[in-house]
Amino acid sequence: MKKTLFAVTLAMVSQVIMAAEVGGLVKDDQGRAVTGAVIDIVGSNTSVRADGQGRFTVNNPTGRALELHVRAPGHMHRVFHIDDQRSDLQLVLTPTVVEVINVVGLPWHASNVESAQPVSVLGDEELRRRQSSTLGDTLQHQVGVHSNYYGPVASSPIIRGLDGPRVLITQNGLDAGDASRVGPDHAVATEASTARQIEILRGPSTLFYGSGAIGGVVNIVDDRVPQSNETEGEWRVEHNSVADDKLVSGSITTGTGNVAVHADGFWRDANDYKIPGPAAAGEAGGSTRLPSSANDSQGFNLGGSYLLDNGFVGLSVGRLERTYGIPGHSHGIEDVPVHAELEQDRIQFISELALDHAIISGINTRFGYTNYRHDEIEEDQIATTFTNESYEGRVDIFHHPLADWRGALTVHYKRSDFSATGMEAFTPPSLTETWALALIEERHFGPVLLQLGARIEQTDITADNFVANLSRYDDSLLSVYSVDHSSNPFSVSGGVVWDFTQGYNLGVSFTHAQRTPSAAELLSYGPHIGSGLFESGALLDIKPTADGGYEVDLHRGDVKLEKSSNLDISLRKFDGKFGFITNIFYNRIDNYYYLNDTGFNESIAHEHGDHYHYMDLPLYAYQAQDADLYGFEGEFIWQATDALKLTVMTDYIRAQLRDGGDLPRIPPLRIGGRVQYEIADFDIELSASRYLRQDRVAALEDETSGYTLVDLQVNYDINRWLPGTSIYLKGQNLTDEYARVHASFLKDKAPLPARSVAVGISGKF
């Protein structure tokens, strides 16, 4: 009897143990094992890696049905719905010519070809090829992304014609916490040379990051908070001829037992860069270098994590220092050399934990603190100081499947204490504080993936020293106000991804998003040399007077929320030797805040040494008008042979006010091509991009001519002597084209760099 009872008990325990595991083989469509495959359990933080024979085992102690997201280099990602507990699963992945990279910045497992909203990811060797001194220039060859080019340091990305406060820049999912969204001459406080990948989320991404991201999100992902103790790293040394630009960068992650540590750092130094013609449009002769375009920078990050069986908990500290010239800084009669000195300290806490709770399957936590400052210096004197002390926290709480729906509840808090003081402080010190609650869900219905979400915010902007001169002629009417502006932006989103036949899918998404105008859009009043304008915020009204002048009065009505209704349609092909990703979009924005020409000028006096310069700046006021932005994007890839790969891309943005008129600084139609050829240890890439003439311009905006940029890169793999190492030669603007970027505030003062040649050596271990 005891033996029988023992046998029954042993059988029951064995069944429980068996029921707690799901396993099998990951293979390709030819039946060969896929190495390097990663299997993620959708809706949790749990993932496993297949062994060298493609075999894997996943623990499933709850016995619930699973959705497994499977990814591997060179193959299309797939989601498999597993209803029973089996150890002989056969998970088949198909090869793809499209580079498929998992997206870290989304709350669910997805890649650039699996999301309902268009997403691009620049990673691995592609990121190393595109790396430049600025984030905008690094991403400018991505479909739908351009640069607002403000010299070799301050350039930031434009997504589908939108930039500034509408495009959020994040580091590992947390706001960069700098001043780059306030003015085009302010550098983005990030560094691409130590990044693992850069993600571009096009269209409204407010459900994930907040109401400021109506244009999109750029998320820089690095390993400053390590998730593994495997020893790996990379390094790079480069010299570029166009500005005698020198770069040294490196990173390492290692550890032992339950402890992982990470360190990375970089150093960059460059002189004024060479230009192929005069700096100013219409100027005869002139310097062969752009004045005030030199820069030097350095930074480091140190991080550590404690690794658990169900995730990790980690902390990092980082320091960034950057000194850079600000070209085109004019006080009317003459250009004045100006440079900025930037410092940023950053602390990040990141935790991802899988749980066996009856309802909650995992919790992701992110907290960040940033202390930012930059001084703009003229003649060795600090003219203006910008500071931003910011705190941010986000907690994503994932739940187990409920009627096959998987998702997360997000609680998000952000606080930004921003200050500008000095001669060119055109905004008063302000505090922006946001609380938000979001719910995001998804479910598979056979070949259709449905994604839904909603977000509600409470945003408060306060300023205790809002100063406005209520008369152009009488300084005694200078008034000081306290501002406390509150709003409740609400956003909803729905999207589907339909795998309608083998190797193709169709993505359709619609988002209605509301945005609170930024502190700069509301509170500006003063000269902004970076834009060349005297800017007035939406909380002020510019009123004509009977004598042909104007007066400034406090805005008496409500401040309207900006409302975006965005439709995206994406068609993708990813099987076989030919693939493509195409998008068309339509973004209808009500109450679009932009700087509108009032027809008046504001005369300002600027102290320069022992005398004053007087200059007239056009007076532009932030106004809310309805606008439409629409266009298309396409990338077509053909693996002609095992060695030869051809890529063609194009994008176009049309942006206009609904009542008539074009929006300023909208990039023109672009068509580009790239040829990649691998032979023996060589990898050769030749690319060309044609930017057409832009003649759809706003008031007081000049047209720009078309131009073509030709680049070449040659990599030579020296693995046989130094494993994981390659040397490279990179040439840019090989035809020495004289080109001006239409989206730049400096297009009449700062052309793109002349022909350049860079040599470097890089390695991985």
Tally of strands: 41
**Approximately how much helix is present in the residues?**
under 10%
Question: What characterizes the major β-sheet?
Answer: 22 strands, antiparallel, barrel
What does the average pLDDT come to? 87
Structural class: mainly beta
**Silhouette:** globular
Rg value? 27 Å
Unreliable segments of 5+ consecutive residues: 1-19
Distance between the termini: 61 Å
* Secondary structure tally, helices: 6
Work out the strand percent: over 45%
Structure commentary:
The protein is mainly β and about 775 residues long. The protein is built from 6 helices and 41 strands. The strands form 6 sheets. It has a 22-stranded antiparallel beta barrel. A 5-stranded mixed beta sheet has the order 8-13-14-11-12. It has a 4-stranded antiparallel beta sheet with strand order 3-2-5-6, with no helix packed on it. A hairpin with a 7-residue loop joins strand 39 and strand 40. The chain is globular. The N terminus is likely disordered.
Reconstruct the topology from this structure.
Elements lengths: L1 H18 L1 E8 L9 E4 L5 E3 L5 E5 L6 E6 L6 E5 L6 E5 L25 E5 H7 L4 H5 L5 E3 L3 H4 L2 E3 L7 E5 L2 E2 L21 E6 L3 H4 L6 E6 L10 E9 L4 E12 L2 E12 L24 E14 L2 E15 L12 E17 L5 E19 L2 E22 L2 E18 L7 E16 L2 E22 L8 E10 L2 E12 L2 E12 L3 H5 L1 E4 L4 E4 L3 E5 L5 E5 L7 E12 L4 E31 L2 E29 L4 E14 L12 E10 L2 E10 L15 E11 L7 E8 L23 E9 L1
Parallel strand pairs: 1-7, 11-14, 30-35
Antiparallel strand pairs: 1-4, 2-3, 2-5, 5-6, 8-13, 9-10, 11-12, 13-14, 15-16, 15-41, 16-17, 17-18, 18-19, 19-20, 20-21, 21-22, 22-23, 23-24, 24-25, 25-26, 25-27, 27-28, 28-33, 29-30, 31-32, 33-34, 34-35, 35-36, 36-37, 37-38, 38-39, 39-40, 40-41
